[in-house]
Design goal:
Elements lengths: L13 H6 L1 H21 L16 H7 L2 H32 L6 H9 L6 H11 L6 H7 L16 H26 L3 H9 L4 H12 L1 H16 L3 H6 L11 H10 L4 H32 L1
Helix pairs in contact: 2-14, 3-14, 4-8, 4-11, 5-8, 6-8, 8-11, 13-14
Length: about 300
């Protein structure tokens, strides 16, 4: 076929492009349109109903002057660091152990992954019971004779976010383990054989050879963990409802409360916009380095 007879780039895979039109329209109207609508009304003084009465940056000034919002941001940072670091480390270690072809691998994999099948509400209620000082872990240990044992993070305002993080790790680490295990199973067996022949210790093989080869898996895992961090809401509601006081507030709960309970849409939209901005600050530089830099090579 001559060059003039070849179909243009626009008409290649035409059926697939036509089939994707509904999803593209949905994304443009629902996601992009909804985001633009939220940002627009964050500059208004909308209360119970949205109205175009612009007040400039007043909602944002009020937002960053509210102690509840500052506490929620601090909690999100702590929760995010704990979830990101410990999920990756524990998930990878569990995957590395299961990759050794141990006995009852399927059983262990099911046990570790099972918590992910539960909703955050169920997980929160379970760990609310486990961390209850009267009949949870503290009550059981004290009943065994260690009366000075103290473990009630959900009732201590200074460490309550760590108690919530324990429940999140319990639920989400199994999924990270499965993703990492899939990545490890995709490594060519000849690489392991070559490392053993060269006498490279196993930890160096993982650190300098295997982990760099699993870069796409780590990127996917980071995106999944980050999305869970930003939208954390139901786990907090199920365990503490933001308490004690406002010690365990998170941005998503702040947005929900102001939009549906305080009937202050403008303040809720401003908080939502700040959450969107925080995501863009992380994603845009990563996307530029991941895709933009590759084209120049």
């Amino acid at each position: 076929m001559s060059k003039s007879e070849r179909p243009s780039q626009l008409f290649r895979n035409l059926n697939a492009k036509v089939a994707s039109i509904p999803m593209i329209l949905t994304a443009m109207v629902v996601f992009v349109g909804g985001t633009a609508w939220t940002v627009l009304y964050s500059f208004t003084n909308s209360k119970l109903l949205p109205r175009l009465n612009f007040v400039g940056l007043d909602q944002y000034y009020r937002l960053w002057a509210t102690p509840r919002w500052l506490i929620s941001i601090e909690n999100l940072l702590i929760y995010g660091v704990i979830s990101l670091v410990f999920s990756l480390v524990i998930g990878f270690l569990l995957a590395a152990l299961l990759d050794q072809k141990i006995r009852f691998e399927d059983t262990f994999r099911t046990i570790f992954l099972y918590p992910f099948a539960l909703s955050f509400i169920v997980t929160g209620l379970v760990w609310q019971w486990l961390l209850n000082p009267d009949f949870g872990v503290q009550g059981v240990v004290r009943g065994l004779g260690w009366t000075s044992f103290d473990f009630n993070p959900l009732y201590n305002s200074s460490i309550v976010i760590y108690g919530i993080s324990i429940a999140a790790l319990w639920q989400g680490t199994g999924l990270i383990m499965c993703l990492m295990l899939a990545g490890l199973r995709g490594i060519d067996e000849d690489i392991w054989k070559a490392a053993r022949v060269d006498g490279i210790p196993m930890w160096k093989t993982y650190l300098f050879i295997i982990i760099p080869m699993m870069r796409p898996v780590f990127i996917t895992t980071l995106v999944i963990i980050a999305s869970g961090i930003v939208k954390v809401y139901d786990l907090v509601v199920a365990q503490t409802s933001g308490g004690p006081g406002i010690a365990s507030e998170v941005p998503a709960k702040y947005v929900y409360d102001y939009m549906f309970f305080a009937q202050n849409l403008g303040q809720g939209f401003a908080a939502s916009t700040m959450m969107l901005l925080s995501v863009m600050i992380v994603i845009v530089p990563w996307a530029y380095l991941e895709f933009g830099g590759r084209k120049r090579v």
